Amino acid sequence: MPFHRAYRVGGELAYVERALSGEHWGGDGPLTRECEELLELELGAPRVLLTTSCTHALELAGLLLDLSPGDEVIVPSFTFPSTANAFALRGARIVFCDIRPDTLAIDEQQLKRLVTERTRAIVPVHYAGIACEMGSVCEIAEAHGGIAVVEDNAHGLYGRYRGQYLGTFGSLAALSFHGTKNFSCGEGGALIVDDLELVARAEMVREKGTDRTRFVRGEVEFYGWQVLGSSYVMADILAGVLRAQLEARSDISAKRSALYTRYQAELDEWAQREGVRLPVVPVECEHPSHLFHLVLPTEVDRDRFVEHLASRGVQAVTHYLALHSSPAGRALGEAPLGAPVTENIAGRLVRLPLYTGLTVSEQDVVIAAVISYRCTSAVHMS
């Protein structure tokens, strides 16, 4: 059983053929704008800009913040390197924050102790699409003069916190449409711009620093280099694939929710007996069933568990290593208060196969393999 398998909803080819039959194969074409408008309408966001990847969306955010050496950006240590790279590339010092042991989201209690007069941005990561405590994060940012909040929402499209969509709390937010995400075009991303004052500049930064987007709309006669930027526009052919996937939101969400709910129900008794922790979802959070993770009692158990599943034909994988202790993390940042929870979780977490096309019979194989494992360190119940 593979950890992931690409899922086609059936309408992708028609949209790709539409793109190919037109004259606009490159970036920022009609299908790109249709995807952006769909997301803007559903999320209630002022502007969504499709990008070539979530990494590029984060880099675009770093450019929009006008960061410079000496500035600090706070990110969780438990995240993908892109979250830190985007701001380190602008010369900012990365300040690593620990995570909560329950949701694996940024620890808001430690966060408030890390803010200094040099802090320019806070980057909460909604791990597994389960929301960070955004009320506290935004309060901390406001209490220190309106520090920018940039949400890394690679996992959480259509997730909510207290009824509000993730990605609409800060001034900027990044989305991912990578092959492993709920909605995919192979490689792609988007930047949500909730600060209206940043929209015009974001359009220019994304288009090589030019006002070409205004030119295409007929707002200027010529276009030229206006600000520092790069090429982050998604090709319209890829936008065609994404268009079909976004249209199938209800079907994709229902399938993934059913799989996630079944894992939760079928593995609960085993997890309690073996001392394994299942995902924790606070009542104020609605998540999009992006991934299903387990936290084993020890790192030894985690490694043995992965081998156990592999011997039964099931591929399970680990996830992030602690960024603050990586070579680049030590060179480009620091964790002033340490990150013991991150270090502990990173060695014990494993993810089970969860993809839209996973069948019930395939999930049966995964579940059977999981519950046949016995943790070496567990206190077993009679």
SSE order and pairing:
Elements lengths: L11 H10 L8 H14 L3 E5 L2 H11 L7 E5 L4 H8 L4 E5 L10 H7 L4 E4 L11 H10 L4 E5 L7 E2 L2 E2 L6 E5 L12 E5 L2 H11 L5 H5 L19 H12 L1 H26 L10 E2 L5 E4 L3 H13 L15 H6 E2 L5 H7 L2 E4 L7 H12 L11
Helix pairs in contact: 1-9, 2-9, 3-4, 3-7, 10-14
Please give a quick description of this structure.
With 382 residues, this protein is an alpha/beta fold.
Q: What is the radius of gyration computed over CA atoms, rounded to a whole number of angstroms? A: 21 Å
Strand fraction band? 5-15%
Question: How would you characterize the largest beta sheet?
Answer: 8 strands, mixed
Q: How much helicity do the residues have?
A: 25-40%
Gross morphology is globular
Low-pLDDT parts are none
What does this protein look like?
The chain is 40% helix and 13% strand. The protein has 14 helices and 13 strands. The strands form three sheets. An eight-stranded mixed β-sheet has the order 1-9-8-5-4-2-3-12, with helices on both faces. Helix 2 packs parallel to helix 9 (236-247), helix 3 runs parallel beside helix 4 (81-88) and helix 3 (54-64) packs across helix 7. The mean pLDDT is 96.
